[in-house]
Amino acid sequence: MKDSKSQVKENDRSSLRRKFIKHFESDPETICNAEDIEKIEQIDPDERFPCHSPNEALVLASKAFPKDTAISYLPNGSVSDNPISWTYKEYQEEVNRAANMFHSMGLTVDQSVIFLLPNVPQFLFGLWGAQLAGIAAPINPYLEVEHIASIAQSANARILVTLSPSEPGGEELWNKAMKAKSIASDIQHIIVVGDSHHDYCKSWDQTTRAQPSDKLIFDRSISGTEIASYFHTGGTTGAPKLAQHTHRKQVLNVCQMQLTGPRGTEKNNITDCDIILCTLPLFHVNAAFVTSLNAILGAGQVVLAGPNGFRNPQLINDFW
């Protein structure tokens, strides 16, 4: 049984989810066959799913649950780590700072920010921030340099975000970033997560801290139909190709998943969407949307299980 405080919070979360997903009397209790699907599809998607973008969802969640934990980061990907956490208010502030930083660097709505990063919190802040100021383009850092540069050129990239060479695993990413930039010459700015040791790149922490956190310094009205991001394919059938995401379709996809998927299984006063473990790479749509955006829509907590996720053997040991 839940205590009264937990029950009130879960009711509040349900109220938040209703801002994203509307239910109607004609809806079936469960989806068992094609007839049930037809009943759901009788309602226009714009009426059932009124949200227009991930940022709109984050704003609603941060207003409803400003002090609740949004992200917990395990630096070494171990259960023994002391997690570094951000509340929903802090999450929104970091996204605003990132968006303002990109805009201050001259990013326009048809230009992109490419990310060559492991699973660090700045990846999430940058992903949503880039979508506000322009277009986000996460890239698998394990790709060959030529493929990375080709994606950057196709994505009209102007800013590249990667790890500092002084960070664990950063030297390899840094070298790839430098080689990719030499090919994709339209990249104008390099931002590093960690200490900046070069005059021609900027520190993420220093640069974002110089930006306002309570508001955007630019005006942009997002209807939902604009391009939000480019996620590349795996390259299993030739060179990787870019898939365009609109703001609306990103949030719509997760809303549809929540409508049709399981929710509400309770154990130890925690439901199955209160805390979601993120172990897959954030350059992949599963981690970005099925995990991260999914958590926002219910004001849940994402646990980033270290920079390397499932590539970390210690993480597998902790499961057992």
Approximate shape: globular
H-E string = HHHHEEHEHEHEHEEHEEHEEEHEH
CATH architecture: 3-Layer(aba) Sandwich
Query: How is the biggest beta sheet arranged?
Result: 5 strands, parallel
The CATH first-level class comes to Alpha Beta
Sequence stretches where pLDDT stays below 50 over 5 or more residues: none
Q: Helical stretch count?
A: 12
Q: Regarding quaternary structure, how should these chains be classified?
A: single chain
Count of spatially separate domains: 1
- Give the N-to-C terminal Cα separation: 27 Å
Cα gyration radius (Å)? 20 Å
User: How would you name the CATH homologous superfamily?
Assistant: ANL, N-terminal domain
Structure write-up:
The chain is α/β, with parallel strands linked by helices and 320 residues long. The protein has a single domain, classed as ANL, N-terminal domain (Rossmann fold, 3-Layer(aba) Sandwich). The protein contains 12 helices and 13 strands. The strands form 4 sheets. It has a 5-stranded parallel β-sheet with strand order 4-3-5-6-7, with helices on both faces. A 4-stranded mixed β-sheet has the order 2-1-13-12. It has a two-stranded antiparallel ribbon with strand order 8-9. The longest helix has 17 residues, at 88-104. The model has no long low-confidence stretch (mean pLDDT 91).
